[in-house]
Amino acid sequence: MRILPVFCALLCFLICFSCKENSDKQAEKNEQEVAENSVDNKSVILFFGDSLTAGMGLEQEEAFPALIQNKIDSLNLPYQVVNAGLSGETTAYGKKQD
Hints:
Elements: H1 3-39, E1 43-47, H2 51-54, H3 64-74, E2 79-83
């Protein structure tokens, strides 16, 4: 019976580690997207948040930031939306680490 708690702890560690790796990759992608969009003459609107912002379980074009971008485009406004939502993140991760 002692092996079950060890197994559960190991499983939790592996799940947390894999989520953090995916979050780091997504954060790098978001930073690159902001840098690419800032070259245009459009101002960037950054949507920062968790899985609700990221659109977990939805296609990217169905997520809230994409819907806002569609509205902006339909009004011909000079803004570019960047979805920086990361599933599994909390506001504690929002602070820029030096």
